[in-house]
């Protein structure tokens, strides 16, 4: 008994030691290491090297084209579980963008956390490239990314590479990864601050091979650095792109971004009507619903408005009644009318761009009607004025909110309703959260990671609409 207890204590002590992060200096090279990873920081060369002990692969950055007489990483300081250093990344109006970079390991996990900050966050900055990417030099290497089309796997040696830049704020999920399809190892690069960032896919020559790797560019927020920028490298030893996706899923769950349909259905039982239901547009009549029921259609998501009495009867058939709504694209408010989904005060409540012009939105196919882009700060007030009145008359069980989760983030420079890109994202969360708070099943266009807690269904994510070859949204019924 005593021997077993002693051995148990020794095993626990040994495990605790193994989980620690050690930092040591070897000349100009600093080493940050735990039981899973070894990260070498070469201050003179300005280079990082990561050795994944679990799979034996060493991740290296591309070599610098021109050597430097001075250390590229300056003022190296030891931190708990890592270190920080100062470096210049590009320049703004001839002034170097001097950034303090913090690099830490999360002991035993395979995670490398990187934070970029500036001493003066109010300083003006132009977009600038951050750390060089880690390269994957294997014959079966691929890049995995959820680029507005439910995701792609791009072989790293594809020429020409299908996309060279991705707006990080419009990725369906804010990560990009590399992995070896044969051996399964790789990394997920999670952009923890994706609102003001770009993913650039550069081509690098490694020995006799040319491969693509993702580099992050930080974009200004209202022209300024504004806030700390965060990346998380999560290295996996096996499992390929599935492991990369699961790595992000685990991260999203920890951040409270993963809300399952089962959990949503417990909060709103009407969501059960959605499971297995066809998504029907174009006929919301009671006669159609009854005919569908008689033919064995047990569930149906049916969009459109009929009389309140007929809608009540459709609900009693077990179907889910819903309606189209859109708070993004607006026309001028007519005299004597109230603000609604599609009308608002113009130009006052339209987005004001940095160049002083109001932002345009939908243009009809005949080019006769130009919608304007309502400032997202005005989405929620408009919805609060519209939806309760609709529900007081019509017994809808759901609502489809168009555009909000399909478009990219943008800024508004109107002093009456100014927005950063992050503010714009939060406006979308608030709008969808409000619709959900009314007890409705909530749908949206295309979908995006930050809307997962708020949306119950999405339309269009798998239709690859970033590459439409025909103007589907502009079709007009022939006469």
CATH level 1 class label of the largest domain: Mainly Beta
| Beta-strand percent range | 25-35%
Q: Any idea what the CATH architecture of the largest domain is? A: Distorted Sandwich
User: How many extended strands?
Assistant: 29
Low-confidence runs: 1-18
| SS field, number of helical segments | 7
Overall average residue pLDDT: 92
Main pleated sheet:
9 strands, antiparallel
- Based on CA atoms alone, the radius of gyration comes out at 26 Å
CATH topology of the largest domain: Beta-galactosidase, Chain A, domain 5
Number of domains: 2
What class would the helix/strand composition place it in?
A: alpha+beta
Distance between the termini: 90 Å
Structure write-up:
The chain is α+β, with helices and mostly antiparallel strands and 479 residues long. The chain folds into 2 domains: 24-254, Beta-galactosidase, Chain A, domain 5 (Distorted Sandwich); 323-474, no CATH class. 19% of the residues lie in helices and 32% in strands. It has helices at residues 2-18, 240-254, 261-267, 286-294, 308-316, 379-393, 421-437, and strands at 22-26, 29-33, 37-42, 47-52, 57-60, 74-79, 82-92, 95-106, 111-117, 128-129, 141-145, 152-155, 165-167, 175-180, 186-191, 197-206, 209-218, 229-236, 279-280, 301-303, 320-322, 324-325, 329-332, 343-344, 360-363, 370-373, 398-401, 441-445, 457-459. The strands form 6 sheets. A 9-stranded antiparallel sheet has the order 6-7-8-9-18-15-14-11-12, with helices on one face. A 5-stranded antiparallel sheet has the order 1-2-3-4-5, with no helix packed on it. The N and C termini lie far apart (90 Å).
């Amino acid at each position: 008994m005593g021997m077993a207890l002693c051995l148990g204590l020794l095993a626990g002590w040994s495990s605790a030691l193994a989980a620690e992060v050690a930092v040591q200096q070897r000349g100009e090279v600093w080493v940050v290491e735990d039981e899973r990873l070894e990260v070498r920081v070469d201050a003179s060369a300005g280079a990082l090297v990561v050795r994944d002990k679990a799979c034996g692969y060493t991740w290296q950055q591309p070599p610098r084209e021109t050597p430097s007489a001075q250390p590229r990483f300056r003022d190296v300081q030891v931190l708990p579980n890592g270190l920080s250093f100062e470096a210049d990344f590009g320049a703004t109006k001839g002034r170097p963008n001097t950034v303090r970079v913090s690099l830490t390991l999360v002991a035993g996990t395979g995670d490398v956390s990187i934070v970029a900050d500036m001493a003066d966050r109010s300083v003006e900055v132009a977009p600038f490239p951050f750390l060089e990417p880690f390269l994957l030099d294997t014959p079966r290497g691929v890049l995995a990314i959820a680029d507005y089309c439910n995701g792609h796997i791009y072989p790293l040696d594809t020429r020409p590479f299908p996309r060279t830049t991705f707006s990080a704020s419009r990725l369906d999920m804010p990560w990009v990864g590399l992995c070896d399809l044969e051996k399964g190892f790789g990394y997920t690069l999670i952009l923890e601050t994706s609102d003001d960032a770009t993913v650039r896919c550069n081509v690098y020559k490694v020995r006799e091979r040319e491969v693509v790797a993702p580099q992050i560019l930080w974009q200004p927020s209202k022209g300024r650095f504004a806030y700390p920028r965060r990346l998380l490298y999560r290295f996996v030893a096996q499992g390929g792109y599935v492991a990369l996706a699961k790595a992000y899923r685990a991260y999203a769950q920890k951040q409270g971004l993963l809300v399952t349909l089962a959990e949503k259905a417990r909060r709103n039982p009407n969501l059960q009507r959605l499971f297995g239901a066809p998504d029907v547009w174009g006929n919301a009549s009671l006669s159609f619903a009854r005919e569908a029921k008689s033919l064995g259609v047990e569930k149906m998501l049916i969009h459109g408005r009929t009389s309140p009495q007929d809608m009540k009867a459709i609900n009693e058939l077990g179907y889910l009644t819903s309606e189209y709504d859109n708070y993004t694209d607006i026309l001028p408010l007519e005299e004597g009318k109230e603000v609604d989904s599609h009308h608002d005060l113009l130009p006052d409540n339209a987005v004001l761009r940095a160049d002083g012009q109001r932002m345009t939105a939908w243009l009809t196919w005949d080019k006769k009607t130009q919608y304007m882009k309502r400032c997202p700060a005005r989405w929620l007030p408009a919805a609060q004025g519209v939806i309760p009145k609709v529900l007081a008359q019509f017994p809808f069980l759901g609502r489809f909110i168009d555009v909000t989760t399909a478009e990219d983030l943008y800024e508004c420079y109107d002093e009456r309703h100014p927005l950063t890109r992050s503010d714009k994202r939060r406006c979308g969360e608030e709008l969808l959260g409000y619709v959900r708070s009314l007890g409705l099943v909530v749908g949206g266009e295309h979908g995006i990671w930050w809307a997962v807690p708020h949306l119950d269904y999405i339309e269009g994510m798998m239709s690859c609409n970033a590459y439409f070859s025909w103007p589907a949204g502009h079709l007009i019924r022939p006469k």
